[in-house]
Specification:
Elements: E1 15-25, H1 28-38, E2 42-46, E3 50-54, E4 64-68, E5 74-81, H2 84-96, E6 102-104, E7 112-116, E8 122-126, E9 150-157, H3 160-167, E10 173-182, E11 185-194, E12 202-206, E13 211-218, H4 222-235, E14 241-247, E15 254-259, E16 265-269, E17 282-285, H5 301-305, E18 308-309, H6 324-335
Parallel strand pairs: 1-4, 5-8, 9-12, 10-17, 13-16
Antiparallel strand pairs: 1-5, 2-3, 3-4, 6-7, 7-8, 9-13, 10-11, 11-12, 13-18, 14-15, 15-16
Bound molecules: fe (ii) ion (FE2).
């Protein structure tokens, strides 16, 4: 098993960033209203079964795909690779590991590969997308939170180290991590992994999983976070404001979390730092309350316990408990909310 700071600088293929998330929703119109009126995303295309949305600064056709379904699972999360050649290299790489791979046709996307990671997360590696107009300067179309671009995913998994062991050889770097003391060992509780040069593209924390805890969009300004809360209140989405605004310890971002009409969790945030130079990862003791929120505001219990399962992927409970003092502190913080 590699060490937390061990880097793969020449990975077998070139993943560039977190790209898009595909969510099952029960009512496309209801969900579309939430993501356009409150979050501020732009509809790139839609039909009777799907809505394709993008952030205001995105040229790629979609960063969020809503699929009409009778369930509310996450279908898949997407990672962008640099070129078609990277898809073929990825296919060879995963096939050599004995993983099931499939090149698939996906509307508005170029060459696309389906594979699951070591903890069962269904991934979609995509080499290109149809290009749309970048709406960055079309301020007349800004509404709600004015979400700019998809930045990252956070997932729960029963085995963080196992999840990390899939992404580390692909060149993902740990910017920050959390640990808890379990007997004589520092137990790895969470890893913040990145390819694009800021703190994270994908995060794994310990919990029943795999489940999608949230996906996150950037905002143009801090004011847009307050505006999002005001618009939520005005449009009747206030009960879906789950946490924040607040200031993370890890990554240092200002944040607010909403639950969409099907319970999928979206984070809106700003102010991530660069993580480009080779430098040691920053470790946090899980018992440090400033890890999650610098201002000390507690999260609601459901923020810790509820998440979106993946379609057709069983949810596994973690085997390693966190140490009792930390657990006590952790639950106290959660239940205060
Ligand atoms: Fe996040």
């Amino acid at each position: 098993m590699p060490q937390i700071d061990e880097l793969v600088l020449e990975p077998p293929f070139n993943v560039t960033r977190a790209s898009h998330v595909v969510l099952n929703v029960r009512d496309l119109e209801v969900s579309k209203r939430f993501y356009t009126d409150l979050i501020g995303l732009v509809v790139s295309d839609e039909d009777a079964s799907s809505v394709y949305l993008r952030g205001l600064e995105e040229r790629g056709h979609h960063s969020l795909v809503l699929k009409k379904a009778s369930d509310t699972h996450c279908a898949r999360i997407g990672m962008r690779v640099c070129r078609d050649d990277d898809i073929y290299k990825a296919e060879d790489y995963f096939a050599a590991q004995g993983k099931e791979t499939r090149i698939v046709e996906v509307p508005f996307q170029g060459l696309t590969l389906h594979v699951s990671d070591h903890v069962g997360v269904p991934l979609e590696f995509c080499a290109s997308m149809d290009a749309c107009e970048r709406m960055l300067k079309n301020y007349q179309h800004y509404r709600g939170a004015s979400a700019q671009r998809l930045d990252h995913y956070q997932l729960q998994t029963s085995d963080v180290r196992q999840a990390w062991s899939f992404y580390q050889p692909l060149g993902f770097r740990v910017s920050e991590y959390t640990w808890s003391q379990v007997e004589d060992n520092q137990h790895l509780w969470g890893v913040w992994l990145q390819r694009k040069g800021n703190p994270h593209d994908i995060v794994f924390t310990q919990g029943p999983g795999p489940r999608l805890h949230h996906f996150a969009y950037t905002l143009p300004d801090t004011n847009d976070m307050i505006r999002a809360c005001d618009v939520a209140g005005a449009l009747g989405y206030a009960p879906q404001l789950e946490r924040g605004p607040g200031r993370h310890g890890i990554s240092g971002a200002l944040f607010v979390y909403f639950r969409d009409p099907d319970g999928h969790r979206i984070e809106l945030f700003n102010t991530h730092y660069q993580h480009i130079d080779i430098e040691p990862a920053l470790g946090w003791n899980l018992a440090d309350p400033k890890r999650a929120d610098q201002w000390g505001l507690p999260a609601q219990n459901k923020w810790f316990t509820e998440a979106t399962p993946f379609a057709n992927v069983p949810v596994i409970q973690p085997e390693t408990p966190i140490d009792p003092p930390t657990l006590e502190r952790f639950l106290a913080l959660a239940n205060d909310g």
